[in-house]
Amino acid sequence: MCELLAMSANVPTDIVFSFTGLAERGGVTGPHVDGWGITFYEGKGSRTFKDACPSSQSHVAKLIKSYPIKSEVVVSHIRQANRGCVSLENTHPFTRELWGRYWTYAHNGQLSDYQQKFAVSRYQPVGDTDSELAFCWILERVVQQFGDREPADLKPVFSFVAQLADEIRALGVFNMILSDGDHLMSYCSNNLCYITRRAPFGKAKLIDTDVVIDFNKETTPNDIVTVIATRPLTDNEQWHILSPGEWELFCKGERLIAV
C-alpha cells in the first residue's frame, strides 16, 4: 500500500528531514514506486509537486530534499498503485476548493464495492482511483451537511468527516490525511502514527537512510512541530501509534481533538 506524511507547525518549518526518509521508501527501502506528491501551504495558497516516477529516483523529489520550502502545513504521499493506473492524475495529494480554501487530501489503503456509495455531482474525480472518488464524496457530504458558507467553527466539520471516514473504513483500508490549510486531520484505519516535537529539542535519526539531525540547532524554544506518518520515520524517538478508528485534529502543531 501507499505511505502518508504530513506536518503541522506553529511557525513556517521545512520538512526536508522527514521527506528524505519517506522518499527512500519509494523504491529503496519500500515498494512504493508508482508516484509521489507533496503540497505545501503558504497563507491561503499552496504549492504542489507531483511525479509519477518513484520518489527515490525523481529529480523533482531531489529538488524537495535540497530546497527547504517552509510551511506550517504539509501533506505528502508515496504511491503503490492498486486502483487506477500509474499516472500523474492518479498521484496524491488531491486538492479541491471548498469555502474559498484549498482542501488537500491523501489516502493510504484499498476500497472495494465503493462505486455506488460514492455518488458525486459537484465534485468530480479527474483520475480513476478509489482515493480521489472518496475525497470528492466526502466534500459533497460536507456541503450537504454544512451548506455553501464556511462555519465559524470548523471542528464540527472535521468531526463529521470522521463519521464519514468510519463509513468508508467499512469498505476496506482507509488511512487518511486532510487539511484546509490551517487544520490537519489524520484518520487511522490500520497504520498511522505521529510525533510532536517541542523544547527541549534533541537529535533524531532516520530509519531509512543514515541521516541525523540536531533539532536544537534548527529550531527556537517556542517551536511546535507535529509530524504524521504511516510508520515511524526515526528510530530514537517515541512515536504515538494510532488505533483503528482513531482520529486526530492538529492546528499549529498542537492537538485540538483526539478521538
From TrEMBL:
GO terms for molecular function: transferase activity. It holds the Pfam family GATase_4. InterPro entries: EgtC-like, GATase_2_dom, Ntn_hydrolases_N. Residues 2-259 form the Glutamine amidotransferase type-2 domain. Keywords: Glutamine amidotransferase, Transferase. PANTHER family: GLUTAMINE AMIDOTRANSFERASE (PTHR42824), GLUTAMINE AMIDOTRANSFERASE YAFJ-RELATED (PTHR42824:SF1). This is Class II glutamine amidotransferase.
